Amino acid sequence: MRDSTGGHRALDLDARAVGDRFRLFNFTQRGDFVGYLWVLRAMDRLRAVHRVQVDDEDVAAALRELASAHDEVPHVDATLRDRLDALAADGIIHRLEDASRAGTLARYRNRQSVYQFSELGYRAFTAVEDVLAARVRDANLSRLVFSDILDDLRSLAAANLAGDEEQVHRRLSRLDQVMEDMVRRSARFHVTLGEIVTSTDASPDLFLRYKNALLTHMSDFMAELDRHLPRLGQAVRDVEASGTAAMLDRAARADDRPFLTGPERVEDWKRRWEALRAWFTAEPGSGSGAAGLRRATRSAVSGVIALLRQLTEAQRGGVNRASELRHLAEWIHNTPDEDAAHALAAAAFNMGSARHLGGAHDDAEQISSRATWWDAPGIEVALTPFRTGRPAGPGLPQPVRTDTGARADLRRRQIAARAAERAAAQSLAGGGAHGRVLDEPETKVLLTLLTRALEARSVVAGRLKTGTGGDGTVVMRLVPSPEGGSVRTPHGTLHLPGFTLEIAPHAGGTDD
């Protein structure tokens, strides 16, 4: 849950409270964490049938039921009570004494403990289950939610004008839940998409299989967001015009939470309404609310297109990481003996020159003493000990050498190349791109401008609308055309289905 300023309420906890709540996740760090997880799943199974307080025999029976349906359930009958006590020590469950369960005097003399989830402990357990149940294929952007939010805002304004307390509370609660779900979905989708785009281990075949559906999904979401955003902003202003203070008072009076006083309920609903209002009325250039979501989605579309271009070029060339590894595996398999195979693998992966170096971090207090070498952050190592194993010395200062002649020659060549490009661009602007054969410099300028125009193109409802690219001298525009166009070059004809090219001098171009 977020407050009106965009922060989390968890930020209000002090270090002691944070430590106590982190202790609820201790079972995930124990040696047999899988066994503890299934014990909690058994207790959750009993909780689902309204058996709140259970003893170890009830938990064992629930574990046997789970084992009949799941083969991975471990056998923990001998250590079940110890596991329950450990979970109680962590605070994830409560341990209570219930003498009424003792059927005999011997059982009465022994400890008769019953266990039940604590409120925070159950939240910690469900959080772990949510992480384990998360799948990449479940990430999505909900574009249909905007129409529901618009209907709820309009109904909220009508209910507030009519003075219907229960309807005001019902609509505000629904808006709060829908907004929280939408923000969580969008954040999860963009994190997942960022991992797909930046990860080098992503399957190209899987990405290419779903690329069209992914781009269509994001384009439809952008179109729906652009269509509903002005209406949602107006609906928020209509709700405020009906009386914000009266609306919050009505929602607080209909709120039936017994552990909050009247002023606390009003303050809580005020915080929720301000968060919702800020989401739809933020400035277009700000990075929060709907504007930030729109900008993040547009950047994600650009990242997906860039990755698609990279994978397409790799497949077109026929040489990529997968093909190189397959060829290397074939070479290693065809070596005459095992020593030759090890030598070839060591040379391919540079395993012979590995040197294990270590050192102290600049701020050692930031690194936990329990962190492994694999998880600890890296440090900078000098090149001399890396190559030779000897400590690096300061060495003698070297004189600064400058070659003014080479620099001047390079500068002259750069000026000449730039002048040739400007001349080709001006010739291209004067003669146009269609109806003639371009020479080599004009073709080079045309391809550069076409690349920039395609990178800056805008797509609406899955169709290319326009695109502009320039180099400071001329400007190229992609003009949609049903007939399409073609450009003749020294190397052949470049077909442009769906649009033609319009080239004109840059309005603010200079010759420097």
Automatic annotation (TrEMBL):
Which superkingdom, per the lineage? Bacteria
Q: Which InterPro entries match?
A: CHP02677
Name of the protein described by the UniProt record:
TIGR02677 family protein
Q: Which organism is it from?
A: Sphaerisporangium corydalis
